[in-house]
């Protein structure tokens, strides 16, 4: 059992029956299960006794259960593993490139006719679809707002680009495959120049303004005042208007709160109008406030004299 335990240590205390048979005979495997040295997790998947399972062990066990069919974690379970803001399902979801896989209790199995190596990666030792492929697969399982946040989160990652998301979309919707209108619409918004922002609420603020009929604001505008540069999340520089979202996580300390207030004071002294919104601000209130302020500043003839630039790369 020594070599088997060593292997299990690299797989979250799990082994397949095929792996166990390298060291043990079938009779010895049955004996180890009977003595409680090995525990059956799924048909064909065993766990070394004394190692209670956690969620990631459960996800890996699902992949190992479909190992002979080339299974990888995918769909909502893939999003969970990647840390994307998708709903979490108790039953692990795996994706296999071959049809005919038998039903596995406690696991949801999806089949595909296209799962190239470029669509698979390893996260924490678990084979899983890449972020781009995961976004594609979950796009038909969630609503448009959730999908928008998933795309936002994906594009905040250094390993994911808009071009990569489009490449997977175009590949899987071509040659007669299903079209994913929701994902296409979400990606087209990004083509219009929306940035993922530093937080989901920042991206939501931009969408609320655009969906409310306003022109798209500039994100991450760099403004230099008196030799000091400030970054504005969502700005209309033509009328010196800045809209910000205040989240509790952004003000976890008094220092950050004070820094924001000092920043606002400097901007206001330089002629900027700063509007701050919170989680409790409705979309209607945000649009009406920003629109009314924008119109008032425009009527007053307040226009920018420069001193700012767009942040390169968002």
What distinguishing features does this structure have?
elongated, three-stranded antiparallel β-sheet, 314 residues, alpha+beta, 19% strand
Number of strands: 13
| Strand arrangement, major sheet | 12-11-10-9-13
The topology string of helices and strands comes to: HEHHEEHEHEEEEHHHHHEEEHEHE
Q: Share of helix among residues?
A: 40-55%
Largest sheet: 5 strands, mixed
Our measurement of the CA-to-CA distance between the termini, rounded to an integer number of angstroms, reads: 54 Å
Describe this structure in words.
With 314 residues, this protein is an alpha+beta fold. The protein is built from 12 helices and 13 strands. A 5-stranded mixed β-sheet has the order 12-11-10-9-13, sandwiched between helices. The protein has a 3-stranded antiparallel β-sheet with strand order 1-3-2, with helices on both faces. A hairpin with a 4-residue loop joins strand 10 and strand 11 (241-245). It starts with a helix and ends with a strand.
């Amino acid at each position: 059992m020594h070599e088997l335990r060593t292997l299990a240590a690299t797989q979250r205390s799990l082994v397949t029956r095929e792996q166990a048979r390298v060291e043990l005979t079938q009779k010895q495997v049955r004996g180890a299960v009977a003595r409680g040295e090995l525990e059956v997790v799924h048909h064909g998947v065993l766990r070394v006794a004394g190692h209670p399972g956690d969620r990631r062990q459960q996800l890996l066990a699902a992949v190992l259960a479909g190992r002979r069919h080339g299974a990888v974690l995918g769909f909502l379970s893939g999003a969970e593993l990647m840390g994307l803001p998708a709903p979490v399902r108790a039953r692990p979801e795996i994706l296999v490139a071959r049809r005919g896989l038998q039903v596995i209790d406690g696991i949801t199995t999806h089949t595909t006719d296209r799962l190239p190596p470029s669509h698979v990666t390893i996260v924490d030792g678990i084979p899983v679809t890449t972020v781009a492929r995961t976004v594609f697969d979950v796009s038909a399982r969630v609503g448009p707002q959730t999908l928008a946040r998933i795309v936002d989160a994906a594009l905040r990652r250094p390993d994911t680009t808009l071009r990569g998301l489009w490449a997977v979309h175009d590949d899987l919707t071509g040659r007669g495959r299903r079209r994913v209108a929701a994902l296409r619409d979400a990606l087209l918004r990004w083509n219009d120049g929306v940035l993922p922002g530093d937080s989901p609420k920042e991206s939501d603020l931009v969408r609320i303004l655009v969906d409310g009929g306003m022109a798209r604001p500039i994100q991450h505008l760099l403004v230099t005042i008196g030799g000091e540069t400030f970054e504005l999340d969502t700005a209309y520089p033509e009328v010196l208007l800045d809209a910000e979202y205040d989240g509790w996580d952004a003000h976890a300390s008094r220092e950050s709160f004070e820094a924001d207030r000092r920043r606002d004071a400097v901007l206001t002294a330089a002629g900027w109008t700063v509007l701050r919104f919170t989680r409790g601000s409705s979309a209607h209130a945000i649009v009406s406030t920003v629109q009314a302020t924008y119109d008032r500043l425009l009527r007053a003839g307040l226009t920018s004299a420069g001193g700012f630039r767009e942040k390169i790369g968002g």
